[in-house]
Design brief:
The protein has 18 helices and no strands. By secondary structure, the protein is mainly α. The longest helix is centred in the last third of the chain and has 30 residues.
């Protein structure tokens, strides 16, 4: 071939060119036949109408004043305004630990920290937010940045950070309640997203060790331990969650007698914890059954006792295998916290229902429920994202 023709020949478009790949995908998935073409245009028309209508309603028709006027109630319920600094202190302590954890462990913690910081920034930019709230949010963002730098520099703080996370819950309960040291704020004033988050965190944190013990107890060779675990798991799993909540609210005081008074919020936390533990026990038991028999035999061949074998060989593999199932249970229990409204507690959804029953905000059901749904969507997606990142880092599903 002539050398000049080779030099002047136009380069051909690669079959893997992005535009070519997009056209091929559209042709294969949306316009592969006359029926698919018709369905594509029909659904595109429907989606367009829905999208245009939604945009018009969100930006032109919706009355978002109901959210701006009741934002504090939706977040912290009827917690006294003069004592809100306690809630901010709790949030600042959480930000302190989050930033420190980001600097120490990076990875998934870094992505979650960026998401939390972004939420602080977005909330701070809302036009109806008070200046005091903006200042606290800026302080929290600054705390995250400062503690990230500290954690990145001082890697020896890992043990102290873990201890801080364990102490975070009792410190939070002390600050919110007061217990006579500070002005007492009864749990009947806790509400909104604050109550939702507290119940979900308690149920998730405390149900895990109980579920782990129940899963091990169901496989125990001791008949009393095994049958007790089986009876508890099957009884709780066979009863609806709302029944457990009613028992915790109404029957528990009768069992304990008149001399013992248990807080309503604490009763709900106990009910959620016991309910979640039964489901986690079955998830963990499924993980234990997935471990090959050779792992048990290898540990026994090394002369390891039952405690060491389960702690360092069997359980890490079993828990690694059931991360998706456990996180699914955690997400489910986070959403099920809305059931506490039935037993007289005012969580985020319950506070929303109270707001729309106010004559001043009649007809704003859609706005309130969309806000509540958006809050649940954000936090459930964060939990799901953290689960996927942990699975990727541990190589779940890979050989």
């Amino acid at each position: 071939m002539d050398k000049n023709k080779l030099l002047t020949k136009k380069p051909q478009k690669s079959p893997y060119h992005p535009s070519t790949g997009t056209l091929d995908w559209l042709k294969k998935n949306l316009f592969s036949s006359w029926l698919n073409t018709i369905l594509t245009f029909v659904f595109a028309t429907i989606i367009t109408f829905i999208g245009i209508g939604s945009v018009k309603w969100i930006f032109l028709t919706a009355n978002w004043h109901v959210i701006s006027a009741n934002f504090r109630l939706l977040i912290v319920g009827q917690y006294p305004i003069a004592e809100l600094w306690r809630v901010w202190i709790c949030l600042t302590l959480v930000s302190f630990l989050i930033g420190l954890s980001w600097g120490l462990w990076k990875g998934t913690m870094g992505h979650l920290t960026i998401a939390v910081t972004s939420m602080y920034f977005i909330v701070g930019c809302l036009p109806f937010i008070l200046m005091e709230t903006r200042i606290w949010l800026l302080i929290n963002i600054a705390v995250i940045g400062a503690t990230y730098a500290v954690g990145k520099k001082w890697s020896k703080l890992k043990k102290s950070t873990l201890i801080g996370w364990f102490l975070m819950f009792p410190i939070t309960i002390f600050l919110l309640n007061g217990f006579g040291v500070l002005n007492h704020v009864g749990s009947n004033l806790w509400g909104g997203f604050l109550l939702t988050l507290l119940i979900a965190i308690v149920a998730i944190v405390f149900s895990f060790p109980i579920g782990l013990l129940l899963a091990l107890g169901r496989r125990s060779k001791l008949p009393i331990v095994r049958w007790f675990s089986i009876g508890y798991i099957e009884l709780i799993r066979g009863v609806p969650l709302i029944t457990i909540l009613f028992v915790a609210q109404l029957m528990l005081p009768l069992f304990l007698g008149n001399g013992i008074d248990i807080d309503n919020v604490f009763r709900a936390m106990v009910g959620f914890t016991l309910f979640t533990a039964a489901y986690l026990a079955e998830n963990i038991r499924g993980g234990l059954q997935s471990i090959p028999r050779g792992q048990f035999e290898a540990a026994e061949a090394l002369g390891l006792n039952t405690t060491i074998k389960m702690t360092f060989i069997i359980l890490p593999q079993a828990l690694r295998a059931v991360i998706p199932a456990m996180v699914g249970s955690f997400i489910g229990i986070f959403k099920d916290t809305s059931l506490v409204a039935i037993v007289g507690l005012t969580d985020l959804l319950g506070m929303g229902k109270n707001i729309i029953s106010n004559p001043e905000f009649l007809g704003t059901q859609m706005e309130v429920f969309i806000f509540v749904a958006l809050v649940f969507l954000i936090f459930c997606n964060l939990m799901s994202y953290a689960s996927r990142r942990i699975e990727q880092s541990l190589g779940v599903g890979k050989r």
